Amino acid sequence: MNKYFLLILLFPLFLLYGCNSYTWQEAQQEDTYEAYKTYVEENPEGEFVEDAQQLLELRYWESIRDDSSAAVFQTYLNRFPNGQFQSEAEEKIDQIARANLATEGRVTGSNVIIRSDHTTESTSVGVVAREGTIVEILDFYNSGNSKEAILSRDATFVQNGQQINLTTGKAVTILSDQIDSVRVSVSTAEYGTIEATISKENIEPMSGERWYEITTRDNITGWIYGKFIEEL
Predict the structure, then answer these.
(1) pTM of the entire structure?
(2) For residue 24, which of 68, 65, 56, 57 has the smallest C-alpha distance?
(3) Are 146 and 216 members of one domain?
(4) Where a domain ends, among 71, 99, 127?
(5) Matching InterPro entries, A to Z (predicted)?
(6) How many domains does one find in the chain?
(7) Nearest 10 degrees: CA dihedral of 50, 52, 58, 64?
(8) Which residue, of 2, 96, 128, 130, is most buried by count of CB atoms within 10 Å of its CB?
């Protein structure tokens, strides 16, 4: 038999069996996260890719929604950063964190400001003067404000010819980013709000950091930046 004629006969079989990818019908029959994931991987331009992506996420969520580990829900958020269950996963993480939240904390700095809300722009309601002071922890909040920061070391600014000394832990607001430095505004009791340029090495951004709502033994209730609280 002519070898070219044989190739012509076998070519349709090659198309039928050699290039047969995982089908949408097969994925629907199995109806699992793994099945839809396989369909998407083997058919990236397939007609039902969007449906498969939604269903694979749904099946994944159904497999973890009753879990008690915060890490499991964080993995979901990492895998599906814009997922349809993002708010539920974040709430689960908060619920688990609150269930495991310590009832007492130790203040790790001196003259730490207690604020009326979980932001550096809120008013002061008191100060914890002594490092090591024990406080009661009531709640926490994870900050998402990328404009807030604190000084990571003492800094000196000059305003209208006056030298202004600011200590480590002082709250600042980032106004603009200048590659190696940032322009910040700082509220001071003596000079009001001032602006200055400071090296990025001298600040610690507070985005994504935790705040604690606390009560002191002399009944001052407010929020302290998490860097200055050690859970007990």
Answers:
(1) 0.56
(2) 56
(3) yes
(4) 99
(5) TPR-like_helical_dom_sf
(6) 2
(7) -130
(8) 128
For 76-87, what is each residue's pLDDT tens digit?
988 888 899 999
Token readout for 202 is 């001298």
Q: Are residues 86 and 115 in the same domain?
A: no
Token pair of 122 as six digits: 């809120």
Q: How far apart are CA 127 and CA 148, in angstroms?
A: 20
Do 108 and 95 fall into the same domain?
no
**Lookup: tokens for 181:** 């430095």
Write down the pLDDT at residue 104.
92
CA-nearest of 111, 72, 113, 101 to 89 is 72
Q: What single-letter amino acid sits at 72?
A: V
SS3 160: coil
**What residues are paired with 197 via a beta bridge?**
183
Residue after which a domain boundary falls, among 65, 99, 133:
99
160's tokens: 């209208």
Q: Give the SS3 label for residue 229.
A: strand
Tokens at 65, concatenated? 């929604």
Highest mean pLDDT pick, 14-28, 107-121, 196-210: 107-121
Name the amino acid, one letter, at 166. Answer: L
What is the phi/psi pair of residue 218, to 5°? -100, 25
Written as one letter, the residue type at 205 is P
| Same domain? 119 vs 215 | yes
**Whether 64 and 130 share a structural domain:** no
> Three-class SS of residue 118?
coil
Provide the residue range defining the domain that includes 25: 3-99
Residues 57 and 13 in one domain: yes
Mean confidence (pLDDT) of the chain:
83
- What's the average model confidence in pLDDT over 106-112? 90
Computed on alpha carbons and rounded to an integer, the radius of gyration of the chain in Å comes to: 28
